[in-house]
Amino acid sequence: MAGNGKKKGIARLLELAGQKRTLLVASAVLSTFSMLVLLVPFLAIYRVLAEFLEHASAPGRIDVALIKRWSFVTVVSLVAGFALMYAGGMASHIAAFRLLYGLRIQLTERLGNLSLGYYDRSSTGKIKKIVEHDVEKIEKFVAHQLPDVVNAAAMAFALIGGMFYLQPWLALACLLPIALGFWAQFSMMMGERSRQALRQYYDAIESISSSSIQYVRGMPSIKIFGQTVHSFRRFYLDMTQYRDFLLRYADDFRHGYVTYRVLLLSLAAFIMPVGVFLLSRDPRNVSFAAVLLLFLALSPGIAVPIFKLNGLASTLGMIAESVRRVDELLDEPELTEPARPRVPTEYTIAFERVGFCYEGTAGERIRALSDVSFVARQGEVTAIVGPSGSGKTTVAELIARFWDTQEGAITIGGADIRDIPVGKLMELLSFVFQDSFLFSDTVYNNIAMGNPGASREEVYRAAQAAQCSEFIEALPQGYETRIGQGGVYLSGGEEQRVSVARALLKNAPILVLDEATAYADPENEHRMQRALRELMRGKTVIMIAHRLRTIRGADNIIALRQGTIAEQGRHDELLRLQGLYAGMWNAYVEASNWRLGERGHSDGADSPNDGGQSRMVD
Ligand SMILES: Nc1ncnc2c1ncn2[C@@H]1O[C@H](COP(=O)(O)OP(=O)(O)OP(=O)(O)O)[C@@H](O)[C@H]1O
Description:
The protein is α/β, with parallel strands linked by helices. The protein has 20 helices and 10 strands. The chain has helices spanning about 10-20, 20-55, 65-115, 115-120, 125-165, 170-190, 190-215, 220-225, 230-265, 265-280, 285-330, 390-400, 420-430, 445-450, 455-465, 470-475, 490-505, 520-535, 570-575, 580-600; strands spanning about 350-360, 365-375, 380-385, 405-410, 415, 430, 510-515, 540-545, 555-560, 565-570. The strands form 2 sheets. Strands 6-7-8-3-9-10 form a 6-stranded mixed β-sheet, with helices on both faces. Strands 2-1-4-5 form a 4-stranded antiparallel β-sheet. It is elongated. The structure holds adenosine-5'-triphosphate. Adenosine-5'-triphosphate binds near residues 390 and 392. It is a multi-pass membrane protein.
């Protein structure tokens, strides 16, 4: 990632800005001219002052035409200066917005090509901050700070050069406090300590960003469980840490900053004694008096470009950190496309001695699967069961290359999944998760995204088969009703049926169901099972289930224990083994009977012995 020879920090920032070189050069030239033209009124002040002082004892001899001429020049130069400044600003803003657009497109393309596991690792808050906040920092640098630095530097050089030309001693009196101020500021603000502080600042912002998202998402739990819930505590802790960090930061740097500002804002206090001393040696030198007055008039203005340059220097570190974070995301490895692609025509999935470890936050390896081998045949249902944390979800996610296996291989129709082009692999798979994700869009579009080329008829047929046409037609605008903000909210079961309709429409040959009937009540579950039976016909089906009743009829049941296969076979075979599966089944039956006992009567809906009427797979 970092070792790819890519430039870093300011150099990388300038490289990014360099993509819009022509516009930026135009902006710099226009800004510099604008600044030089805007200095002309100071020259006018000097000439008029000199004229007044020269003829102070005989005002009648003052050259009125000269004063009118300089007044006219002042007005023209102000208008021209501001027009040039406007044109320069336009050029830099156009460059910045184009850069912003380009970066955001690159980032979103990269986000679309990353392995799905990246999203498990990275919080939404972190990604959101990079795409919004960090990119905007770069845009602001190009739009404002880059032109500012050019014209501030031009102004500073023009002023200092002019001052030395007019009166070197007064110029030195001005430069001394500027040099002292810079020394006070930079001796504190530069170096590793400052860079570390910046990094901490960014980490704190990212933390707040992700914990605030969690806080908002967890609001129902917060309301129910009061202030003890995790997301609130984390949010509160992040806010407190951020506050403490800022207070420490301000405390560390305040002396340098205050000294610097006080010195720069009191240049007149340094010019005055030197000026008075020089004037006392030659009190009749009228032109020196005019120069001294000009210096005093200019002294507050000298601080402006210097503050700008310094402001940029202190934010440059922040922008460089933003660039680093944007580059980090741009350098995230994409899913590799195979050198010699293979496209399977048969869809049996085989795990061959698969081992997999997650990487923990401190880089440690967390083993999730070891030596897992099984075959999920096309047209059959393979169920995966096991206690919590035994690796069921990992098995399902590895098939979609959320992560790549570190040991062994996974094949589809004999082709290693790493040899199947990524787009093709995604075409082959349909997932129905426990928590279905629906977009804030119409119901119709939510189903249609399963197959963007599908006709309206096909979308309606999929909805019908997924048992959701009835409730969709009862919605205020039917299929055109928006889901989520500004529209309607669906129940968990309804959302799941919409996602089954989406999967039906996609009609992929491999189907992975992760606890697909989790939200269904007895009535809905029956409908869901009918929908799923439709969806599963002829496919390779991998089904993760906690409610064992739903997988009793599976062709093969894989029972996982701590990332390894403890047993595999059909329901009856596994019961006879009297091992892990039999233990889970007995516990499940007991739990179901306990519930029935509590209610005092049996409606048969949740019974594991319900004669197969509600069996998902038979
Ligand atoms: N993103 C991750 N980073 C680190 N460890 C993980 C990650 N996801 C899962 N694990 C660990 O890997 C192991 C297997 O997890 P997995 O989610 O596959 O189990 P599971 O059987 O699906 O659990 P459950 O039934 O509770 O959903 C667990 O020990 C879990 O803590």
